[in-house]
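Next comes this protein.

***
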Amino acid sequence: LASIEGALDKRAKRIDLLRSFTRQYFEKASADALRQRTPDQLAALVQRHFEFAGSRVPGQALIRVLPPAEGSDIGAMATLETVFDDMPFLVDSAAMAVRDAGASVDWSVHPIMRIRRDRRGRLLEVCSEHLEQPAESMIHLEFEPLASAKAYAELEQRLHTVFADVARMVGDYGAMMQRLHDLVATLASTPTAGDQGRSLDDVAEARAFIEWLGQDHFTFIGYAFAAAYSDDA
């Protein structure tokens, strides 16, 4: 980290804040990953990401997809950079979108930082992970170049849609789990064979399966409920 800090542009605005940002940006990156880039390359990419993250309000997704000449200091790779509220599935979703665009991811870092901002969203401080500040996800992916400027624009737009879908899914998770618990409770009070010929064994099996799903054995991304055990539609 010291060698990366030493390679930062000393003329950069808010250089002390940039140094703090840099330490946390690479703090949890693997040594093997960092050795694949020179200190100068790492300093350039973190400084660019720092400037990109300089202003953001909660819920806003900052996303940009850059061709090699603009986005990569190693010359051959295109770059994806994002700043968003921290939540599950962002990295996998971003990587899948890149693959769907026909490219393979070559290198990545994914720092999660607790950042203090002012009311307008301007970055003021990079905080300790133990402080009660909102966590923000930073993604930097380097990948094979795409075929055209149109392909970069389409990937960037696709990522905005993907991140919005992820945020919606994560935001609905509590409601989905509550619906699951309500369904388990309904099945627990369901009588024996009735108007639809249900047996106790059938109901118990259904209840056990739904309980199992809720024990981190399934990723809930939404639900539409119209089962034989309910009048819901």
User: Anything to note?
Assistant: The first strand starts at residue 62 and ends at 66.
